[in-house]
Amino acid sequence: MLAHHLDRCHEPPMHLIDNLQYANWSEKIFRQMAQGGVHAVHVTIAYHENFRETVANVETWNRWFERFPELIFHGKTGDDVRHARKEGRTAIFFGFQNPSPIEDDIGLVAIWHTLGARFMQLTYNNQSLLATGCYESEDPGITRMGRQVIREMNRVGLVVDMSHSAERSTLEAIEISRRPIAITHANPAFWHPARRNKSDDVLRALGQSGGMLGFSMYPHHLNDQSACTLESFCEMIARTAELMGADNIGLGSDLCQDQPDSVVEWMRIGRWSKQIDYGEGSADDAGFPPMPDWFQDNRHFINIAAGLRRFGFSESETAAVMGENWLRFYDNSFGPEGG
After folding, report:
1. Is pLDDT above 70 for 283?
2. Does residue 219 have a pLDDT over 60?
3. Which of 326, 334, 315, 317 is CA-nearest to residue 13?
4. 17-21 and 249-251 beta bridge pairing
5. pLDDT tens readout for residues 25-61
């Protein structure tokens, strides 16, 4: 397979950042991160968990940090990515795919930033207390609480993430937020019309505001799904750069490595429903499809870098997509407002 054909000796010097994974974490995966030269990964520590349940997930990560200090550590700033590269380790950044860890308490925004969270989606597919998800038939936009929470997230340095949000809510979040927001893991709808993929209007607004888009390798969001070619993926990146700016794009693989199909049910329905919600539209979407042959795990980001260069990206442009753009965003986003 292509994923095993490329030689890392051709890798350009860069900080390599993947801005979304939800793997079934293990020493094997942590070692693959090192083998792939991945310097930072934004990991999901909450889908539908409440505050205390998410604290338990932090405790689990703390044990992994203790067990594998030569491989991973808790990242909180852009400088942690630089340290990770120098030390051959991976900085792990925490994020939520739902605002459930703040429950209905705006004061928990600052608490979570103190505990190390750096990204929070305002909704995961459904209507939340803050915004509307991409599966809802109506989108009334950012709620009253959502406006207040965005301001508080801006104040402390918790990034607004609209990856699973509906159109109006996403556009309003970009407008309301005083700091650039992120769509950590989605693709343009012009390339593949999945519910979560974003319109040209959203991408333009995101780029104009200095926000970031992380391209997803999750097959349900790829053109031709598991059969998507690397050439098609790189062409999509190039077209998106023309639409929203080359400084505003990176990677957010949405890698769910080694997860059982039952985890998809937790993602999709949590505790809000007794019925299985197939999300993208059919029972065929209920499990994890095979990853494309050019991206199987953390060792294969180099394939994307090589593909971008073959498509005509310069070394500096390739490095920007592979992580330098995210690193700049980290530097500007994770500290207190005005700090």
Report:
1. no
2. yes
3. 315
4. unpaired
5. 999 999 999 999 999 999 999 999 999 999 999 999 9
Q: Are 5 and 240 a contacting pair, CB within 8 Å?
A: no
| Count of structural domains within the chain | 1
- 112 φψ region: left (φ > 0), alpha (ψ -120 to 50), beta (else): alpha
The helix or strand, by DSSP H or E, that contains position 323, with its residue range, turns out to be: none
Distances, alpha carbon 137 to alpha carbons 121, 166, 168, 185, 186, in Å: 19, 9, 12, 22, 20
| Under 8 Å between Cβ of 51 and 331 | no
Instruction: Specify the CATH number for the domain of residue 323.
Output: 3.20.20.140
Q: What whole-number distance in Å separates Cα of residue 92 and Cα of residue 64?
A: 11
pLDDT at residue 284 is higher than 60: no
Cα angle 218, 42, 146 (rounded to 5 degrees) comes to: 90
pLDDT at 278: 57
User: Is 274's pLDDT higher than 90?
Assistant: no
- Tell me the average pLDDT of the chain: 93
Q: 87 Cβ partners below 8 Å, 6+ apart?
A: none
For residue 9, tell me if it sits in a domain.
no
